[in-house]
């Protein structure tokens, strides 16, 4: 089995069947990570380049570990945003990378659409590891895998996503993914951080955190970036935390077996209280484990039997 | 040089004329306009316009010719050649050149250059403020004397309402119009496309319709306060159309234009991150598009202007957020406007008024009519000619056009400037 596509750019372009295929493969590949020798030779001789224009140790590490467990060679390139401004254009970077003949390029970029820009120009496959405010497809896939493991299904679940939806590519990808798989998604946050027309993505908008989590099977809290305070998106962290921070008392409103997710890194005590983050409902560390499995699955399915 | 254009359908909206006539051009002027056969053919060069529309030369009141300063994008020579190819005999060029056209000497330079290498009449628009910095008024009387036809800080909207008030008053002193690029920069913030259902999907920062509407409203109120001639550039939202409609009904001295991309495309054109669909104001929703068409049909909007904004690959072959705003339109403006005619949205006479008579009247420049004594600026249009937009064949130096590959029906087949043929379609 393989994906009939060169690139993974966003969840919005994937069909239900493609998402299911990736999740099924990830579930199988997860077993490799539990072995004492965590490596299979499947992608031996392939070159995977990670190109990160934004600092992100954890996502890049997750991709690199995934590639190495499949025996691919990895090269990583981190471009500081400041030097990219003065330096070469993305088109030139693309041309230079192409000349090195990689098999797969994994890119994170601050501009929405940057991976699409590269995908159009490069013969090799491109995986979007986060573009601007647009999408972060592997994060959504690992989140769906985590929920599927915990609940046995995605269809018919109530998923609440809370916080800064406006600036969150994780939220966008998850909204596409969970709604495609038949979950019911509700979002909540201050109206400044809920973009207009959000309802056109097929989500419900709750007026408060309490209403968003009522009866929820899954609660996903988003990281609030502290600099948003100075950009007139909300008043103080104290008030944000009081209104939109997830605390133990909220869990009583949700389903008994609710799971709590966070894409990380967390601001403990702001969007999520430590008791919740470390409590029995939290699956935050499972998300990290599943990140490697999902990324292995995506690489395998994209490069599959293309020798 | 004498030219006799026979058997064409004359459309002269300024005089409510729409009938077959023979048109005689002599010494750079329209000499006569008579029923078929009245003007003798002997000894005259005759152009058979049977089956064609004969219109007063089209005038695009909002273009960027990029000279001086950014000649790698466009020059007065290439820009006016693009104009002629698109059926335009006159263009008003915005002052956001490098340096900004905020004084008589740059205005004179543009006019000299146009005279030397131009294929269309060029009407410079001077800057509202020095350097378009929004701080101090530029020299309006001097610029007018040098040939400027209006004032605008296009591209660098006037954020200070007091400066806008003073500009309207000062321009009124010299009986000049002020062209407003209506956009609240604080509200636009770092938006790159229309704020709507496409921006929320693509994760591109949005520019709300209100960023345009609050400034249209401000300027309409200031026009009422001052009694000056206000013209609103590139209207793109339903709300802006409504505000202008209301202001006109209340007797405010305001005119307005829109561009073909606002009545042809919507924000859906940005899907796929096509930077040729990145323009300011941004391509709006279908609701806005329909309201713009309604405004063109009911007289709220007075002109179609392309906002021809050439950019090279250096500004456009980039990730969407980093690319420049703007698209070129001189060579597609007529064809896209005629789509509205073919669709029955506006009459042919209205289309010619929007593209010729009205811009001439707003800017008070010669032309826009075929009345005897007017300049011999004429555009021959084949309404039914189907053609495919091919940016590689453009006369413009730039290629940033979202309509590449489109099939359009209706095209200028001959453009006559001052009695001379400056463009002729070759089969
Ligand atoms: Zn403008």
Provide structural commentary.
- The complex is a heterodimer of chains A (307) and B (427).
- Chain A is built from 12 helices and 9 strands.
- Chain A has helices at residues 16-29, 57-69, 81-86, 90-99, 114-121, 137-151, 169-180, 209-213, 237-244, 248-251, 274-277, 284-303, and strands at 47-52, 73-78, 104-109, 125-131, 158-162, 184-188, 204-205, 218-221, 259-261.
- Chain A has 2 domains: 16-135 and 290-306, Aspartate/ornithine carbamoyltransferase (Rossmann fold); 137-287, Aspartate/ornithine carbamoyltransferase (Rossmann fold).
- In chain A, α5 links the parallel β3 (104-109) and β4.
- With 307 residues, chain A is an alpha/beta fold.
- In chain A, α1 packs across α12 (284-303).
- The radius of gyration of chain A is 19 Å and the shape is globular.
- Chain B is an alpha/beta fold.
- Chain B folds into 2 domains: 3-54 and 375-424, Urease, subunit C, domain 1 (Roll), CATH 2.30.40.10; 57-363, Metal-dependent hydrolases (TIM Barrel, Alpha-Beta Barrel).
- Chain B is 31% helix and 23% strand.
- Chain B contains 13 helices and 18 strands.
- In chain B, the strands form 3 sheets. In chain B, strands 1, 2, 3, 4, 5, 16, 17 and 18 form an 8-stranded mixed β-sheet that branches.
- In chain B, α2 runs parallel beside α3 (140-146), α4 (161-173) packs across α7 (209-226) and α8 runs parallel beside α10.
- The radius of gyration of chain B is 20 Å and the shape is globular.
- The two termini of chain B are 25 Å apart.
- The model of chain B has no long low-confidence stretch (mean pLDDT 97).
- At the A-B interface, α5 of A face α6 of B.
- The site of zinc ion has 5 residues of chain B, from loops.
- Residues 154-155, 181, 233-234 of chain B line the site of zinc ion (ZN).
């Amino acid at each position: 089995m393989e994906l009939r596509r060169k690139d993974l750019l966003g969840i919005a372009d994937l069909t239900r069947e493609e998402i299911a295929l990736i999740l099924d493969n990830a579930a199988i590949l997860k077993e490799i990570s539990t072995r004492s020798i965590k490596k299979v030779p499947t992608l031996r001789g392939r070159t995977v380049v990670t190109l990160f224009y934004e600092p992100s140790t954890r996502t890049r590490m997750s991709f690199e570990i995934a590639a190495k467990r499949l025996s691919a060679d990895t090269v990583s390139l981190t471009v500081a945003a400041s030097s990219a401004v003065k330096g070469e254009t993305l088109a030139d970077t693309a041309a230079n990378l192409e000349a090195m003949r990689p098999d797969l390029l994994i890119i994170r970029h601050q501009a929405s659409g940057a991976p699409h820009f590269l995908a159009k120009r490069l013969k090799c496959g491109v995986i979007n590891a986060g573009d601007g405010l647009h999408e972060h497809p592997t994060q959504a896939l690992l989140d769906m895998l985590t929920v599927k493991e915990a609940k046995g299904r995605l269809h018919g679940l109530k998923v609440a996503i809370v916080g800064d939806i406006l600036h969150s590519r994780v939220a966008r990808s998850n909204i596409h993914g969970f709604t495609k798989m038949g979950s019911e998604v509700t979002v909540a946050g201050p109206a400044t951080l809920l973009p207009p027309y959000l309802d056109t993505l097929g989500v419900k908008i709750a007026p408060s955190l309490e209403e968003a989590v009522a009866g929820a099977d899954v609660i996903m809290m988003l990281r609030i970036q502290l600099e948003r305070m100075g950009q007139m998106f909300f008043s103080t962290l104290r008030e944000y935390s009081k209104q939109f921070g997830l605390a133990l008392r909220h869990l009583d409103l949700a389903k008994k077996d609710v799971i709590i997710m966070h894409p990380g890194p967390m601001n403990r005590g702001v969007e999520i209280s430590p008791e919740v983050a470390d409590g029995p409902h939290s699956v935050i560390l499972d998300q990290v484990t599943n990140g490697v499995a999902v990324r292995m699955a995506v690489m395998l399915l994209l490069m599959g039997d293309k020798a | 040089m004498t030219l006799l254009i026979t058997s064409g359908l004359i459309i002269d909206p300024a005089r409510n004329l729409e009938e077959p006539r023979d048109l005689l051009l002599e010494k750079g002027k329209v000499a006569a306009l008579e029923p078929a056969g009245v003007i003798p053919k002997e000894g005259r060069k005759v152009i058979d316009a049977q089956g064609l529309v004969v219109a007063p030369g089209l005038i695009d009141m909002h273009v960027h010719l990029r000279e001086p300063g950014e000649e790698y994008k466009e020059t007065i020579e290439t820009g006016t050649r693009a104009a002629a190819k698109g059926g335009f005999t006159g263009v008003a060029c915005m002052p956001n050149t490098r340096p900004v056209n905020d004084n008589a000497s740059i205005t004179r330079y543009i006019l000299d250059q146009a005279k030397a290498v131009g294929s269309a009449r060029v009407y410079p628009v001077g800057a509202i403020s020095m350097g378009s910095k929004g701080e101090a008024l530029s020299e309006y009387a001097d610029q007018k004397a040098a040939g400027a036809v209006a004032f605008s800080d296009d591209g660098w909207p006037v954020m200070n309402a007091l400066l806008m008030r003073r500009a309207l008053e000062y321009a009124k002193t010299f009986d000049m119009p002020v062209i407003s690029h209506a956009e609240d920069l604080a509200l636009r913030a770092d938006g790159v496309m229309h704020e709507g259902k496409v921006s929320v999907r693509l994760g591109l920062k949005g520019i709300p319709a209100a960023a345009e509407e609050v400034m249209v409203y401000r300027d309409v109120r200031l026009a009422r306060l001052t009694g000056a001639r206000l013209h609103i550039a590139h209207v793109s939202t339903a709300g802006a159309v409504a505000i202008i409609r209301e202001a006109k009904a209340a007797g405010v001295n305001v005119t307005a234009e829109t561009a073909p991309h606002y009545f042809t495309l919507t924000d859906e054109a940005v899907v796929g991150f096509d930077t040729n669909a990145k323009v300011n104001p941004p391509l709006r929703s279908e609701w806005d598009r329909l309201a713009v068409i309604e405004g063109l049909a009911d007289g709220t909007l007075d002109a179609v202007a392309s906002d021809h904004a050439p950019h090279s690959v250096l500004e456009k072959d980039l990730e969407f957020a980093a690319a420049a705003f703007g698209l070129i339109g001189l060579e597609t403006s007529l064809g896209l406007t005629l789509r509205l005619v073919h669709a029955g949205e506006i009459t042919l006479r209205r289309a010619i008024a929007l593209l010729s008579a009205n811009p001439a009247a707003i800017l008070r420049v010669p032309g826009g009519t075929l009345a005897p004594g007017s300049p011999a600026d004429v555009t021959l249009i084949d309404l039914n000619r189907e053609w495919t937009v091919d940016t590689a064949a453009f006369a413009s130096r730039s290629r940033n056009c979202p309509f590449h590959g489109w099939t359009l029906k209706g095209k200028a087949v001959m453009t006559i400037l001052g009695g001379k043929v400056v463009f002729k379609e070759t089969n």
